[in-house]
Amino acid sequence: MALRVDYEGSNDVGVFCNLTNSYCLVGVGATQNFYSLVEAELADVIPVVHTSVAATRIVGRVSVGNRKGLLVPNATTDQELQHIRNALPDEVKILVVQVKIRRVDERLSALGNVIVANDHVALVHADISKVRFTS
């Protein structure tokens, strides 16, 4: 399945979305048309979570995840973390074993730019020596 969309006139959809096999994060502030298109394609399969991460709408740029978890920068607020946790239905949490959401204390905070991952492997920017997690 492929869906052609733009986010408020920007073709950089990956900057504003983080799509995995278990959930889709969409940055707040998009037009209702964008949300409607994404939800029409995905809502029957996975939850579509409207959220900000680190007080920005560029959720695809500042977060990275797979069906097992999600990494967000240390600047992510407690309210944002709680909203994301609450938006994932219980069956998704069980299906994925545990969706772990972690803050990462890292100078390179645009995690979506410096880490790519699937369910088996992650490719990490060479300047990230050791990831430091906080709850």
Describe this structure in words.
This protein is of the alpha/beta class. It has 6 helices and 9 strands. The protein has helices spanning 13-16, 32-42, 59-62, 78-87, 90-95, 111-114; strands at residues 17-19, 24-27, 48-51, 64-66, 69-73, 100-104, 115-117, 122-124, 133-134. The strands form 3 sheets. A 4-stranded mixed beta sheet has the order 4-5-6-9. A 3-stranded mixed beta sheet has the order 1-2-3, sandwiched between helices. Strands 7-8 form a two-stranded antiparallel ribbon. Strand 1 and strand 2 (24-27) form a beta hairpin. The longest helix is centred in the first third of the chain and has 11 residues, at 32-42. Residues 91-99 have low confidence and may be disordered.
A few lines on this structure:
This protein is 29% helix and 24% strand. The chain contains 6 helices and 9 strands.
